[in-house]
Amino acid sequence: MESSFSLKTILTISLFLFFLTPQSSLAIKVPFHPQDLLPLLPRQVSWPILNYLNGAVDLLPTFVGAASSFNDTGEWKGACFYENRAWMEFHNKTGSEFGGGTLHLEVSKAHSWTCMDIYVFATPYRVTWDYYFISREHTLEFKEWDSKAEYEYVKRRGVSIFLMQAGMLGTLSALWDVFPLFTNTGWGENSNIGFLEKHMGATFEQRPQPWVTNISVDDIHSGDFLAISKIRGRWGGFETLEKWVSGAYAGHTAVCLKDSEGKLWVGESGT
Ligand SMILES: *[C@@H]1O[C@H](CO)[C@@H](O)[C@H](O)[C@H]1NC(C)=O
Ligand SMILES: *[C@@H]1O[C@H](CO)[C@@H](O)[C@H](O)[C@H]1NC(C)=O
Ligand SMILES: *[C@@H]1O[C@H](CO)[C@@H](O)[C@H](O)[C@H]1NC(C)=O
User: Fold this and answer.
1) Number of folded domains in the chain?
2) Which residue positions does the secretion signal occupy (predicted)?
3) Which of 56, 85, 105, 173 is the most buried if burial means most Cβ atoms within 10 Å?
4) In terms of DSSP H, where are the helices of the chain?
5) Which pLDDT belongs to residue 107?
């Protein structure tokens, strides 16, 4: 009963928009998808539609590049826009210690009139998102860097850009999952654990006390593997997103090796 009602709602809304939009003559020529218009609908309307249509859509954002000031990202193909590139411009509009920056994102060659691409932009200190459905250069403003650490990070590594591949529907509901990851609270921690479990099937179990143990070199054997997974705070949220995107289960790893004289070496991953 409920689903037929939702379907009727969708049809009504799409017909309504169809007749009201000045572009309806264009819409006739191109395949028209009601979901293309979802972000334009009031939230109360779009959420029930999402719930109806989304089901178990599994979505993965794709890392398309990191925009830094030196080089643009190179071109990538979006779901809607086929030619995209981005670059970063640093500024000091607020006269703050580390200044801020503007991310420029140029999108072109849309494959239909009603489609759009959704992007998630992340540094380890923040995550934000935006969607585009007009071919032109868009900008995303970072008024001020949060700290020296963020400033240095963006200068060196750039702002990471993720394209939400699964299209609008899955995306919006996934963002619902993503935002709590970045809060540095017990809620954020549980969100990270819940997210990894739901989307990657990874479980984290609290180990019994004592949580701090002294180990000596003798306790370590060649080949022992250490994996660190952050699950709380900004880095935790960033790592969760990285894991989700890359399919990795650890954020940082190290392998212990002993040489022929029994000397311990620890090889660490670079990330
Ligand atoms: C930018 O790109 C050029 C050519 O692709 C390369 O030679 C240069 O090292 C890059 N610079 C940085 C800072 O990545
Ligand atoms: C931005 O301007 C302020 C005030 O002029 C200055 O103290 C600060 O060092 C500048 N920051 C950067 C990153 O240039
Ligand atoms: C670990 O070693 C330090 C220094 O030897 C000691 O103070 C501490 O109590 C030890 N901790 C545990 C859990 O054994």
Assistant:
1) 3
2) 1-27
3) 105
4) 2-20, 24-29, 43-54, 148-157, 167-178, 186-200, 233-246
5) 85
